[in-house]
Amino acid sequence: MLVYAAKRFAGLAATLLVATALVFLVLEVIPGDPAQVMLGINAQEDTLAALRSQMGLDRPAWLRYLDWITGFASGDLGTSYTYSVPVADLVAARITVSLPLALLALALSTLIAIPVGVYAASKRGHWQDSGIMALTQVGIAIPNFWFAMLLVFVFAVTLRLVPSGGFPGWEAGIWPALKALMLPAVALALPQAAILARVMRSSLIDALHEDYVRTARAKGLTRTAVLWRHAVRNALIPVLTILGLQFSFLIAGTIIIENVFYLPGLGRLIFQAITQRDLIVVKSVVVLLVASVILVTFLVDLAYALVDPRLRRH
Amino acid sequence: MSGLFAIEGLDVAIHGTPILKGVSLEIARGETFGLVGESGSGKSMTALAAMQLLPHGAQARGRILLDGADVLSLSEAAMCRLRGRRIGMVFQEPMTALNPVKTIGEQIAEGLVLHLRLSRADAMERARQLLDRVGLTRAKVAPERFPHQLSGGQRQRVVIAMAIACRPDLLIADEPTTALDVTIQAQILSLIREIADTEKMGCLLISHDLAVVAEMADRVAIMKDGEIVESGRTAALFANLQHPYSKALMAASNHVPKRPKGPPRTPASHGTLPILSVRELVRSYPQPRRSIFRAAEPFIAVDKVSFEIRAGQSVGLVGESGCGKSTLARALLGLEAPNGGTIEVLGQDPNAARGATREAVHRAVQVVFQDPYGSFNPRHRIGRVVAEPLHLLRGEISAREMRERVAEALVEVGLSEADMAKYPHEFSGGQRQRVAIARALVTRPKLIVADEPVSALDVSIRAQILDLFADLRARHGLAYLFISHDLSVVRAITDDVMVMNGGKIVERGKTARVFDHPRHPYTRMLVAAAPRLADALAIRAAIEDERTGP
Amino acid sequence: MAGRSSTRAGTIGFLRTHKALALGMAIVALVLAAALVSLVWTPYPIDVLSVPDRLQGSSLAHPFGTDQFGRDMLSMLMVGARTSIAVALVAVGIGILVGVPLGLVAAARGGWLDEGLMRANDLVFAFPALLSAVMITAILGPGAVNAILAIGIFNIPVFARVARGGALSLKSREFVLAARVAGKGEIRIIAEHILPNIANLLIVQGTIQFSLGILAEAGLSYVGLGAQPPLASWGRMLNEAQTMMALAPSLALYPGLAIVITVLGLNLMGDGLRDLLDPRLKRRVA
After folding, report:
1. Residue A259 and residue C144: Cα distance in Å, rounded?
2. Does B433 touch chain C (CB under 8 A)?
3. CB contact under 8 A, B377 and C177
4. How far is B366 from chain C (nearest CA, A)?
5. Which has the minimum average pLDDT: B150-164, B271-285, B292-306?
6. For residues B457 and B465, what is the distance between their CA atoms, to the nearest angstrom?
């Protein structure tokens, strides 16, 4: 188990390093003169020169990269060109919206999908199963941001049950803040849950065809007991894979959904930064999000080993 | 005789297609009953019907009596109380029969908690004792182990421990040793026999192997196409078979292909180059590291193996799974580069040869694999499949000539030119193996490497394919390297044999000598473990005489 | 092999037994037709704003009404279909053309090359299409090409994995070994034995990625990283409709439904094709 975890951790570190290098390459090396990109073609020569020296563009790229990632390690992400404040402060303020939203959506989709998938598998071929399958088929096809718009229209505009957007901030209390995140989380979670429920169902049905299920039946276990005690845990292994992959979709979804609800999260930050061509902010936020995806992949790998003893010795 | 278990007039149909027709049998307490038949005969279905674990859409009619009570009429809840408690079952595939994410202890304890209402701790303690009982002592295999940490034989012992956990009255063993090596098979069979004897269980043993059944069973029934064609006390039944199918089955099991008299027509072996010459061949694989601090030792699959095959010589290579015989075959065929030693085909190194020499070398050695289903690209017609090795003759013979060669090869193996237009899935397993042989023949090779070529086939088909091999050798002076785990097959088809164990060849010599008077301890163990029908029947007959005698 | 029978009764029987597949194919054909027609004709031009005609309801002249700029919704939806399909299709093309050879090479060579390619794959997986699009837009400015590139890049590792997995499972099959014994080279074996046998997998994955591409394109255009005006796109239409939600909810309804129906059609087709082509399922039936 230790060797396995150590191996995965080394993989995590290496992937992070290469990912940061890739982002740096795309945003600071390929454009040639990032200062020119940020200021546009009509920029004054002295403004350009000032920005170039602020960004340290006179130094070789690899040195700037080293500075940047060592800065990352110490929490110094540079200073935003447009806001003139440390990027770290900007990110810290926004992450308190985005992270809870993503986690809430992840929890919600998992909590819905797994029981639904198990139920559908246990009723395979019956009308309950067909109904759930039809529903999830539609669920997968719904873009989350459109679903969000529909939710806003129904629950905020028409029924006036929840605010249609904005975020009061956590200092306004946990309940109002959660209330503001409720619709966005549901909008993110339901389409994800549809995919997850389908994976859970089909993987459970596969597991129910395995020989060890027949062995357990021959021991005298009822269908239900075999399902819960033997099949579900085995069926979770492919579900974990999809859960890990889905996190990257969830990140993208969070960024988009924040636009629908006017939530002041990382998504809003990144779009403002793009409009203002603030590459310093874009660079840091992109790396942060990519790092979170890589981290989740790492955690999923660890979770594999917990579920599947066969992996522990590698 | 107290009838413990009886099946009376059992009919089973799946979605209306009859699978079992009027099956009847009776098993007394302490008696082992053997059910024999080839694949598709319905023997497994009979077992599943007794457990009421038939596949979806199956309908059973008739009576299945356990101590006089009809099992078929029981509710699902009552069946659950009966399964594992009064009838225990052992399955064929130990590799997949256990849940990979639970410890073996938990899996054994589960039935005890369920049926005997033991506490978890008591059940675990009992599971420990059961593991001891089936020969997995605490020091060797702790109950905290997971199935993947056990070998196939050990897993089958765990499955047996599960089946006998609640001391059932009837033990059903469905091909319990088919997936195991012969030495492991002998151990598992004696374990089952010993348990059934001491616990006075009735035992329904299902097998395709007449020798296994003859060794184990007091009484036997022979099944074909869902019907029992005849049954009776083992020795008496086999001594006086009535039904044509049983007779054919018996004949096929003992089949030895007719050998050409004297050495096959070959040029004087003295002074000619061997077709294949292997010296000190080594093939090893890197292993995943177990520790962060040092690299793992490589696994040596083939360890300094040397031998020669001359024209027309039929050489057997026997050994159990994992002994390195298939790796050796792949290295000979150029599918894997050796890590050491040399291979020479007609005096040339096949791995170093280039161009025309390379093609001549590869043309001389062709292959027949085990799996008649995986051997062909499902999208190619048989004509294209068989013509594939003619790639080695491209530019040398015309398209018409290629076609003629393919047709000729198909006729050689008992198929026809018309079969060229068919797809592989249109053929049965035995026919496919004929196609595979045709593909090997099409380059007119000097040596055919056959890797378990009959292992996936039923005995009657197996006999035909062995005849074909013998016949082709007689006609073309082919040399064979015949790789098998099955001693009877190797004995039937080869002149010389090599016994492989742990990557090394431990014994070699004339086949009859090696099998009749083995010298190396491993060979002795192998030969002793292999069930032999004639011996088993002789012992059976002695037992039966004793019981019925004056 | 119902698919091979060319008789009329065979086709109808086939559609009857594969209802989902038939429905999916019908929907996809309809959307495709709308997109193709929009190349040469739309009921109204979409780049002409006509304020007096704005926010009309359904009528014979405008079956889906008009938007806040007076543009005909039907025409916009047709052009939107074209944008979606073009972006998703090219992105799938990029994924197949780059990913499949990579996957096949990884499977054939093994060792460090395989390890390296697969690690690179994992890395690309860590960049959701949206983040790639953000980076591309940051240096190039917004446009539909960004969406194609970003989605295409994300598709590469998907196809590489499918191709590698399929090739690996075939590599040890005896018919591939037999081909090697027959002296055939790596490329010939890939062409004759591997590719034809993973084509099914690729077709099914292609359908799935196509539908994911349509969803992704809509998302990117919605946040302004994709198609730019005057090019119509379902995502952009939803963006423009958002401020009008209270006033004219139908503006947000139609483009959303268009996305849902198209994606649904593709998914039904993908599932149907998988059932039809998966040899495992076939064996289970047999």
Report:
1. 20
2. no
3. no
4. 7
5. B292-306
6. 9
Residues in chain A closer than 8 A to C135 (CB atoms) = 23, 26-27, 282, 286
pLDDT digits (tens, 9 = 90+) for C56-91: 878 888 888 888 888 888 999 999 999 999 999 999
Are C155 and C217 spatial neighbours (Cβ–Cβ below 8 Å)?
no
How far is CA B406 from each of CA B420, B455, C40, C114, rounded to the nearest angstrom?
A: 8, 26, 55, 38
Cβ contact (<8 Å) for C138 and A23? no
Question: From the list B91, B115, B289, which residue is nearest A215 (CB)?
Answer: B91
Distance from C-alpha of A292 to C-alpha of A98, rounded to nearest angstrom: 12
Whole-number Å distance between alpha carbons of B194 and B183: 17
pLDDT digits (tens, 9 = 90+) for B402-451: 999 999 999 999 999 999 999 988 888 889 999 999 999 999 999 999 99
Report residue B315 CA to chain centroid gap. Answer: 20
**Are C88 and C35 contacting, i.e. CB atoms less than 8 angstroms apart?**
no
The Cα of C126 is separated from the nearest Cα of chain A by a number of Å equal to 6
Rounded Cα–Cα distance for residues A39 and A43 (Å):
6
Q: In this prediction, what percent of chain A has a pLDDT beyond 90?
A: 39
Range C2-285: architecture per CATH: Orthogonal Bundle (1.10)
List the domain boundaries for chain C.
2-285
Helices (H), B414-532: 429-441, 459-476, 487-493, 511-516, 521-529
Closest-approach residue (CA) in chain B for C198: B379
pLDDT band for position C272 (cuts 50, 70, 90): confident
Mean pLDDT of chain B: 89
Reply yes or no on whether the pLDDT at C6 is more than 60: no
CA distance A109 to A103: 10
B496-501 β-sheet, strand order: B365-368, B447-451, B479-484, B314-318, B496-501, B504-510
Set of chain C residues whose Cβ sits within 8 Å of the Cβ of B365 = 181
The answer to whether the Cβ–Cβ distance between A221 and B80 falls below 8 Å is yes
ipTM over cut 0.90: no
Q: Pseudo-torsion of CA B14, B17, B19, B23, nearest 10°?
A: 100
CA distance B252 to chain C (A): 27
A262-to-A268, B176, B202, B436 alpha-carbon distances in Å: 8, 66, 74, 68
**Any B CB within 8 A of A306 CB:** no
pLDDT attached to residue C284: 36
**Å between C206 CA and nearest CA of chain A:** 16
Q: How far apart are CA B311 and CA B265, in angstroms?
A: 9
SS3 (DSSP) at C68: coil
Assess B376–C contact: CB distance below 8 Å, yes or no: yes
Using a CB-CB cut-off of 8 Å, the residues of chain A touching C127 are 19, 22, 248, 290, 293
User: By the 8 A CB rule, do B332 and B343 touch?
Assistant: yes
**pLDDT at position B261, please?**
54
Cis geometry, peptide bond prior to residue A115 (ω within 30 degrees of 0): no
A308 vs B: CB within 8 A:
yes
Give the Cα separation of A264 and A269 in Å (integer). 7
- The pLDDT tens digits for B30-79 are 999 999 998 889 999 999 999 999 988 889 999 999 998 899 999 999 99
**Residue A216 contacts B, CB cutoff 8 Å:** yes
- In the three-class reduction of DSSP (H, G, I as helix; E, B as strand; rest coil), residue C250 is classed as helix
The beta-carbon neighbor of C193 closest among B371, B377, B391 is B377
pTM value is: 0.87
Asked if A157 and C245 come within 8 Å (Cβ–Cβ), the reply is yes
Give residue C2's pLDDT: 38
Pairwise CB contact (< 8 Å): B110 & A307? no
Q: Contact B377/C197, CB-based, under 8 Å?
A: yes
Kindly state the average pLDDT of the residues A196-224. Answer: 93
Query: Do C268 and C23 contact (CB within 8 A), yes or no?
Result: yes
Asked if the model's pLDDT at residue A35 lies above 90, the reply is: no
